[in-house]
Amino acid sequence: MMNERNEFPNPEEPFMSTMKKRRGTKKVDVEGMQTCIWPIAGAMIAHGATTCDPTTRSLRPLRRHIRVPGHEIPQRLSNTLEQYKMDHRSDYEIFKEHRRLRARAKPGYISQKTSADSKKIWNNWSQEEKDEAVQRLRDADRAGIELKDVPTDAEGDDEIDDDEESDDAGAADLGDLPDAADEEADDDYEGSAEDGDTAMGGPRKDMFRAYDDSEGKMRGERQVARKRYGKGKASDLDDVDWVYQKHLGSGGNGSAHLWVHVDGKGVIQDRIAVKDCWTDGPFHWGSIKFWDGDPRDMAPEDRLPVEVEAMQACQEKPGSHRIAGIRDHSVDFNRMAYRIIMPFYARGDFITIIDKADDDYHVPEPFIWCAFEALADACLVMERASIREADKAPDGWKEIVHRDIKPDNVFLAARNPKSFPSYPQPVLADFGGCIMTSKDDILNPTAYADSTGTAGYFAPEQHAYEDKTTYEAVFIARQQSWTNIYQIGRVIMSLMNAPAPETLSEDEIKKGAVQEYLSTDPLYDDPEGWKDHEWFKPETEEKYSKELQNSAKSCVKYKPDERITAVKLKGKILRRSGGVRNGKGKDFAKGLRSKKVAKGGEGDLRGWRRKDKYAVGLVRPEK
After folding, report:
1. Which whole number is the average pLDDT over 304-323?
2. CB contact at 8 A, 551 and 573
3. Region (Disordered) spans which residues (predicted)?
4. Does residue 110 belong to any structural domain of this protein?
5. Cα→Cα distances 437→300, 322, 404, Å
6. DSSP assigned state of 470
7. Dihedral through CA 271, CA 230, CA 215, CA 404, nearest 10?
8. Domain-embedded: residue 513
9. In a domain, 152, yes or no
10. Is the whole model's pTM more than 0.70, yes or no?
11. 415 three-state secondary structure
């Protein structure tokens, strides 16, 4: 989609026409901006905002590049921004910053080593340990105690278990929800409001007003209350008694908990992950995008949130094992909330796999082919309700566009003895941001180009842009199966480019060194330049076959109609991983599609083997 000057829209400048590029530095004509946006913008930029609001999305590229000579942030706003940052940081960011401040005061401080140690400690903690540690830091902050003055937890804070296959390895046992939209930051990016380049000013100092951070505090309190609700609200699934076991994780609008059913001897008979989902209020609850169908034309008992409808639609279809299951659901119209009951996936997610990569170990190529095939199957199910090439989509089928495919949302299920028996099977989960669309959907693309998803994994068509001449909205294309294809390509690149560096330079970001932690998509500056873009680190190109690299790159074309289709992608994967019966193609999976690899042998995957303490047949452990 080109504008009147036959140029592709530039997503780096979607809503700020006064922004000018000068040798890679963004400068802003502050006289042309409304006064009221400065306090909020200042807070968001200092925090490194990753919000999906289209009007603020344009602020992301300003993060380290705003220079307004002669204007400094007033002290009262500066103090408010510090509080804003604390209230809106993710748990891991607060934990990491605390350790950095404590370590900086000690002799021999090395930033990269401290950051790496913090990450290892965090990944080896249980969710309860994380919650307790971060709550202690938040309480201290509210009491006026600076983070640098809060001592580290003496119990295990500095003890790291180097056993990579530890029974207690990893973060949550999966079922974890993604961080809230305003908490999704590049965890390993060292830049912050303390950077000298992040000076924020306005037309006149007396126009500033203090940013009211009460909403941020209320958001945190609301999340705690919702977690408490999920813990106390038992499920009535199958009319059996369910016993609360543990908190799995929380996101911006949801909280997940593990519940088990035990017999009289305390032996686990069944287990479920219960996800409680809240909306952002009447505006969200009443949106036509939230429901499957127009809620005004449906009786309350017939309405289903799109997330629930999409998950149910994928069940019992050829290839449905590639989609997270749903066992039951309920909708509470009075509370504007709903509940999803799912299987419990105890082996982690793709982040579990990525975190195990280091300079001496990379994710094995056979597993990446296994993951590629699983995600391609998921795309086929969402597109046409079947992974079989001969099948056509059923009459009335609505294509499902996930919109938030990322490593966090790909869970690890049990191994399949008939397909890559050495590896856990990837399962696509968390359909909270999905849409269900068809060729005659009048909302596509205009209503769906709302930047729902995660920075670094957005397909270009997920954003609305502004024509530089007419100032009218510009939409690249509809969101449909090709949007899913783009995102699975980025996920595969994340596996290939692991490990992520502890710090990211602008150079590394622009060269695509890390897909997982990108806060913006710098390639949008020059869509035509994507053909020559360096998607992989040099060492990545040496580790993996050209066939795997090219297959991933075929998914991430700027123009959606140039991307490979799900059907062709599945065929290409089969021909390159030993999946064709007549022996055509070359097997870059090294025969592991049909045989097992010994633990520690070539092709062995680290990070997913862990003792399942909540497996059916075991005695229920203490909480």
Report:
1. 95
2. yes
3. 1-27, 142-210, 577-605
4. yes
5. 22, 20, 16
6. T
7. 30
8. no
9. yes
10. no
11. strand
